[in-house]
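User: Fold both of these, please.

Assistant: Here is the first one.
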Amino acid sequence: MQLTPLDGEGRYGHIVEMLKFWLNGSSMFATLLEGLSSKFYDRHVDEELLREIMKIQGRLPIPPDQSQSVIRILKLSPRALNRALHPIEMITNGRADLDLEGEESINETHRSMFYAALMSGLVEDYGTKEMGRYHYELRGVVELEHRQSVTTKSWGGIDMTLEARSRLTIRASNVQGGFIHLILPGDQPEPWDEIDDKLKQDDGPLSGSTDV
C-alpha cells in the first residue's frame, strides 16, 4: 500500500484504509504487538479517527464526554478497532437516508449496539496470552471487570433476571515467564487498594510499575 505524505501534524492520509489493511493481516509491522506499541498507532487512533468512524457507522454521534473512553478501547483492542472501521449493518441500515439529528432515543440505541461490539472485542483481546504484555506493561491495564445482565419479559411483567460479573487480571510470572491471566473472586481488593497496601509495607513505590 502506498502511504500518502505526512501532514503538518504527523498523520498519514487515508488512515482508515491503512488500518484496515494492517488489521486484516497485511501489515507493514513485523508483528501485531509491534504495531500496537508504535507511535504510529497512538498518533492515528485519536479524535480525528473517531470522527471518521462515526461517519462509517451512519454518522452515529458520540457525546464528547464519552469520546475518550471510546478511543481508549480502540487503543486497547485491535478487535474493537477492526469492528469499528467496518459498517455494523444493524446500525447503518437503521440510519440510512434518515435525518436523526435530535433523535436521541434512536441514537442512544445505536450507540449501545456500537459500544457492545467494542466491549466484546476488548474482552476477547484481554483474555489472550499474546496481549498480556501489551495491556500490562504498555497500557497499564492490570484488570478487566466485565458485567452482563439479562432480563426476560412477558406481557405481565418481568419473567426473570440474571446478572454475571467477572474479573480477569494479568500478573507477571516468574515461574512460567511472561504474563499469566487469573480469574479474581468478587471480593478481591481493587488494584489501587493493593498498591496502597504495598506502599504502606514498603514505604516506597512499587518496582516496575507503569504510569501510562
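And the second sequence with its predicted structure:
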Amino acid sequence: MSWSVTASDTSVGSVTLAAGTTVLVVAISWSTGTLTYVRWDGTDMTLAVSIVGTNNAAAVFFMNRPTITTGAVTADVTMNTANALSITGTIGETAVAGDTDTNSSGAGTNDFLSVSVATVTGDIVFYAGDKHLGGNWNSVDVNYGHSAIEVHAASPTVGTWGDVDDQQMCCCAVALGIKPIARSNIIVVS
C-alpha cells in the first residue's frame, strides 16, 4: 500500500482533486455558528473530529472514494479556512477514523496548545485549528496553515498549534487509518 496527500485551498470556488483520489479529507475552521454539515459537491462528508472554542472552531471531515473530481466544499457556516486533502494510492483504499483529541483556550491563557492521538503504522494524522488573529501548526510533517498532516509509526503523535500571541484558540486531530478494500479469497476446485 502506498499513497500520497495533495492539498488544495477550497475556501473560495471549486477545486479539482488529484488524479486517483481514493479518500478526500477536508479540514475547516470557522468563527461563529453551529456546524451541521460539510459537503463535497452536494454530498455529505463524514465528521471525524470537531472542536468549538470561544469565537473559533475547527473540524476534520472525510469521504471515501469520491465520485466527483471537480467540485466545491460547502458548509452551513462561514468558513475561515478550508483545505481539501486528496489521498491518492491503490484504487479502493478507504479511511477509517481512529483516535481523536481536542483542545481549546480563552484569550490571555496560552500561546500554544497540543493535541495527541494514538496511531498505528499506516495512519495519517490530520489536524485542524483556528485562532483569533492567526495561528500555525508546529512539530508536524506538512503544514498547510490552519491544517496539517503527520505520518508516523510512533504513538502517540503530537501536534502543537498556536503562535506567540495569547488569543482565543482551538485545535483538533484525528488518526485516519488508510485501509485497502477487503478481498475475498476464492478457491477454485476442479
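The chain has a mean pLDDT of 80.
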